[in-house]
Amino acid sequence: MSTEKKASATRTVLRLLAPYRGQLGLAGIVGLASAILSLIQPMIVGDVVGALTGKAVATGSLVLLASLFLGDMVLRLIEMYLLGRCGANMVLDTRSSVVRRLLRAPLKSHLDRQRGDLFVGAVADTDLLRGSLTMGLMNIAASIVLVVGGIALMTVIDPLLTLVTVACLGVAAVGSVAVARQVRKAMTANRDAVGRFGAALQRALVAIGTVKVSRAEDREAELVLAHAVDATKADMRGVRLQAAMTPLINLGIHGSFAVVFTFGAARIASGALDTAGFAAYLLYLFYMLTPLITLFTSFAQIQLGVAAAQRVEGLLDLPDERRERVVTEPAFASSVLEYDSVSFGYAEDRPVLKDVSFAALERGLTAVVGPSGTGKTTLFSLAAGLWQPQAGRIRLGGVDLASVDLETLRGRIGYVEQDAPVVDGTIRENLLYANPSATEEQIRRAVELAHLTDWVDGLEEGLETKVGESGAAISGGQRQRIAIARMLLLEPDVLLLDEATSQLDAEAELALRKAVAEVARDRAVVAVAHRLSTVVEADRIVVLDGGRVRAVGDHQSLLAGDDLYQRLVATQLLPEATVLTAGRNS
């Protein structure tokens, strides 16, 4: 890992741990006290051994030793509880920050990433932080205290023997650290592959109906499992590396014990070391066994946590769409929605809208028509603040929408999207989604306007009926009407309807057209229209062609003076035109 990447990883870990310094510090103090008690124990054991060798009764030393054991146990219990609580709080706080950042990120940030990858980062990577960072770091700190303290006291007992022991342990330490770094790389690759696996699986599950009718189950399974195989390969590399650490650790420890027994026996024979000192020395080495194993394995654990922390950091660094605006206090003079020389493209070299200018009526229905792909939906996405114009201005009542905070903007402009999505829950929850404080009377009125009354009243559970995930338990037309009623409950100044009648039958469409006409009496309604019935009833029609405004007028004037509009009527809307003409002639 380069120096720059190491510094970045360190900053990431410190940033995530910063709010928990106090909790970690308290756990560290308790752990330090526990380590001190552990370091005292071998000295007392040495005294007991010395007393017993001299045929004396070491009652006081035995009582002190028992007290040390008990105190060490209690302190370790408290330390583990404090670390566990800190880790749980860290996971919760991090997930809260990640979820809020994901939901507040601009739409572009979501389109640039796969949803499965975002899901893995928010769920799995945040969970890794608890064990890998809080527990891992504190285990390393406690182990270092025990190891350093043990070596210092062993040095007091016999410096020469300690020098040889440390040399054996050093070989194992160097090898373990090198392996731990490779473990981090393997685990980073594994988390990336797991993210791709989650994204591929979600892609298949979201379109499960299409997968089945297209007989694509086996093909999708192969695509999804290919990412699972990649994740397993990276995981197995990490498993092999972690497995290699055990022999390295055992080599150092077993070698140290062999050296201690061999040289210790020689030191005792020469009179340089007595039996009590040798017993205390062996106990220190034995006491260092668990801290050494913990120290070496925690390095690998920390590397895994750093990899997860860097992925979480990537989510926390997503931009916040609210902060991209320089907000001023709006003073709307009216509810006129106006596009002034607006240009926009999802890619710089592929503009969708080019110098678009028109104004919707403050009261009444404004229809937007044009060939597919000419930017009709993009117009609405810009007005709703999902994207920002690259040139020009969109104004509401004379106020530039770029200077309006999104909460205010989306309270004044209601947007019924083309696919009319609903959230998993009840009909009531979906209706109240944009305006949770709506009254029962307002709900009933919105249900009536959206022509949902007969359907809702016919359901056994009424408004408490579940719609299923993504509205799977209801029809497309019912989803569309729920989405419309949801925005009607918002009572916006401007209601944007993106092909809001595309999935309705003739009777439901007629009722909804009447509702739209009623709503349009006291507010602006702008609708992307593919049906002549909507166009004919519009007070103003805007014709888009190639991302530009081609013409503005009413149905009769455009039919008489614009050849594109004539073609749209004759091709896209001809069946309805024929029906309407026949109705007038009968």
TrEMBL record:
This is ABC transporter ATP-binding protein. Residues 337-571 form the ABC transporter domain. Signal peptide: none annotated. It is found in: Cell membrane. It holds the Pfam family ABC_membrane. Keywords: ATP-binding, Membrane, Nucleotide-binding, Transmembrane, Transmembrane helix. GO terms for molecular function: ATP binding. The chain crosses the membrane at residues 24-44, 56-75, 136-154, 160-180, 243-266, 278-300. The keyword DNA damage does not apply. Residues 26-304 form the ABC transmembrane type-1 domain. PANTHER family: ATP-BINDING CASSETTE SUB-FAMILY B MEMBER 10, MITOCHONDRIAL (PTHR43394:SF1), ATP-DEPENDENT PERMEASE MDL1, MITOCHONDRIAL (PTHR43394). It is a multi-pass membrane protein.
